């Protein structure tokens, strides 16, 4: 199959959010800590009527309807999520309700889990299936769905929630450059969820930042190496039009792009100008470990990379800044932001993606954007996702209500035998919501 990739996308995020500015005041943090320090504007969150299953149901139904896809045309459904609702029954099986109704139970695939990387694993599974001899001609469907919540403390403002659904097949407008891929996987305790009684992770914030940047360096080196071997020329940031990063919070994305510039400098690529060489020169003697600790290096690279960041990275930061970390959906929500902002000029361009999941697993890969017919044109994808209206029609809640909601959710996590308020007044039409968890832990949903 040729040009296998993403044919269509839909994104859903909860309509409730808190302002990071208000969170700073509420938490007694210094002014600017969350907005400038972390680079975040708002944070979306699920209330007791929403969870990863309801968000997944909403995203999938909306994608099928808006692109006119018959549920019978789906041959593989893969879910990426790190929000565990059941240790055995996959989230995918909940989504099967949509397909069973139409008589389609012939759908392969289950869930992929490793922190924020599960969505990428799910996407690769679908792409590989379409490229394989077991492909039966139908579409693959990937769902990344997560609710990111943290215990009170410095990590709490880096929460968020969303689901992204992506239709996979050949002749796609968002085509994989499958040959160029660099991965880095290793054993780390930077962010993990060993306490099965709590939804909150155990997180070593500083370590997670370093692990992320180390994985980025390693993946970029391998990506460049593969490119150079196959294309016979150097790869540098000048060779991609956009870079899209997994976005736990925007500041890390700014640091990451600076790091790529430093990597280009160390590899002595031809696109680095003399002024940059001069400014980064003093840092070339740092050991690798020292380079992750150096504040001066961080500042210098961020400053030097700023014009390129504005052109190649900033267009992909809108939704992550407005919604927060969406774990598996973060990278694809960032990509959705790029489509939203640049759909009319993307054809022919290369987009480099960096996926990171703590623990840790990471891959850098790339897309080549192609011109396709309706309904799979970029213009239509942007129209369907309707990001501007979705952001505009949200409801702001004060931090006190957010904290109250978190307390209720702590209580409800893993619980049985309760009915929710069924209050769907703030949900937009077509949104699924949780109505009940019965005495056998069975979950029930309704659609607004
Ligand atoms: N104005 C402007 N900037 C400020 C202010 C202020 N008033 N106060 C602090 N800052 C800056 C700091 O200088 C720092 O920026 P820097 O990194 O450029 O130096 C930034 O705000 C964060 O402040 P810190 O004190 O360094 O960190 P904090 O203790 O608040 O924790 C962290 C931040 C580690 C990101 C925490 O929120 C966390 O653990 N989050 C979850 C883990 C995470 O997302 N890791 C990323 C990869 S793993 C994953 O995807 C889950």
UniProtKB/TrEMBL annotation:
<keyword id="KW-0808">Transferase</keyword>
<dbReference type="InterPro" id="IPR016039">
    <property type="entry name" value="Thiolase-like"/>
</dbReference>
<comment type="similarity">
    <text>Belongs to the thiolase-like superfamily. HMG-CoA synthase family.</text>
</comment>
<dbReference type="InterPro" id="IPR010122">
    <property type="entry name" value="HMG_CoA_synthase_euk"/>
</dbReference>
<dbReference type="Pfam" id="PF01154">
    <property type="entry name" value="HMG_CoA_synt_N"/>
</dbReference>
<dbReference type="GO" id="GO:0016126">
    <property type="term" value="P:sterol biosynthetic process"/>
</dbReference>
<feature type="active site" description="Proton donor/acceptor">
    <location>
        <position position="246"/>
    </location>
</feature>
<keyword id="KW-0752">Steroid biosynthesis</keyword>
<keyword id="KW-1207">Sterol metabolism</keyword>
<feature type="active site" description="Proton donor/acceptor">
    <location>
        <position position="82"/>
    </location>
</feature>
<feature type="binding site">
    <location>
        <position position="251"/>
    </location>
    <ligand>
        <name>CoA</name>
    </ligand>
</feature>
<dbReference type="Pfam" id="PF08540">
    <property type="entry name" value="HMG_CoA_synt_C"/>
</dbReference>
<keyword id="KW-0756">Sterol biosynthesis</keyword>
<dbReference type="GO" id="GO:0006084">
    <property type="term" value="P:acetyl-CoA metabolic process"/>
</dbReference>
<feature type="binding site">
    <location>
        <position position="255"/>
    </location>
    <ligand>
        <name>CoA</name>
    </ligand>
</feature>
<protein>
    <recommendedName>
        <fullName>Hydroxymethylglutaryl-CoA synthase</fullName>
        <ecNumber>2.3.3.10</ecNumber>
    </recommendedName>
</protein>
<keyword id="KW-0443">Lipid metabolism</keyword>
<feature type="domain" description="Hydroxymethylglutaryl-coenzyme A synthase C-terminal">
    <location>
        <begin position="174"/>
        <end position="448"/>
    </location>
</feature>
<dbReference type="InterPro" id="IPR013528">
    <property type="entry name" value="HMG_CoA_synth_N"/>
</dbReference>
<dbReference type="InterPro" id="IPR013746">
    <property type="entry name" value="HMG_CoA_synt_C_dom"/>
</dbReference>
<feature type="binding site">
    <location>
        <position position="208"/>
    </location>
    <ligand>
        <name>CoA</name>
    </ligand>
</feature>
<comment type="pathway">
    <text>Metabolic intermediate biosynthesis; (R)-mevalonate biosynthesis; (R)-mevalonate from acetyl-CoA: step 2/3.</text>
</comment>
<feature type="active site" description="Acyl-thioester intermediate">
    <location>
        <position position="116"/>
    </location>
</feature>
<dbReference type="InterPro" id="IPR000590">
    <property type="entry name" value="HMG_CoA_synt_AS"/>
</dbReference>
<feature type="domain" description="Hydroxymethylglutaryl-coenzyme A synthase N-terminal">
    <location>
        <begin position="2"/>
        <end position="173"/>
    </location>
</feature>
<dbReference type="GO" id="GO:0004421">
    <property type="term" value="F:hydroxymethylglutaryl-CoA synthase activity"/>
</dbReference>
<dbReference type="GO" id="GO:0010142">
    <property type="term" value="P:farnesyl diphosphate biosynthetic process, mevalonate pathway"/>
</dbReference>
<keyword id="KW-0012">Acyltransferase</keyword>
<keyword id="KW-0753">Steroid metabolism</keyword>
<comment type="function">
    <text>Catalyzes the condensation of acetyl-CoA with acetoacetyl-CoA to form HMG-CoA.</text>
</comment>
<keyword id="KW-0444">Lipid biosynthesis</keyword>
